[in-house]
Amino acid sequence: MIIGNSQWTAKWLAEEHGHNPDKIGWMYPAMDVGFIETFPPDKQEYISMSMWTYPAGTDVFADIARRMPTEKFRIYGYVHNFPSYPQYELPNNVEFIENAPQDEMFSTTKLWLFPYRTIPNFGRVVIEAQRAGIPVVGIKAGAIVDDEMIKDNITGYHVEGHDPDVWVGYV
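RESULT FIELD:
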């Protein structure tokens, strides 16, 4: 028996790796979201994402910020400095906050972006942001779609591809 962390992962194991679907299951990771609360909108001023990495789509996020110079953007988390990742400068309207407490992340965010370049097998931050009452605009791929983590026009929007101009239309 193989256990995946999402419906998408279970399907991927069968379709892409040839495992017997009858021997594949899935179970979402345990999450404690009890500490996450909704916050008053008067403090929510940033468009945010997590992780300064190429696979997380930071280049797309930065290009969106460049097209929206009057908006404030934040990246929370950590930086990967692997040589295989492109190096790029963040525009002046983007702050990087390393090791921020989750209540700071969610209390100051009005919209969460999830522009992943890799196929997400689970979107923990998508669930956390939505639990805090923050809409999410995310890539139309992987578990974000198959596990219905974003419901268009209800909890946010799915976006095809990585064209920053298309993303700006949803933001």
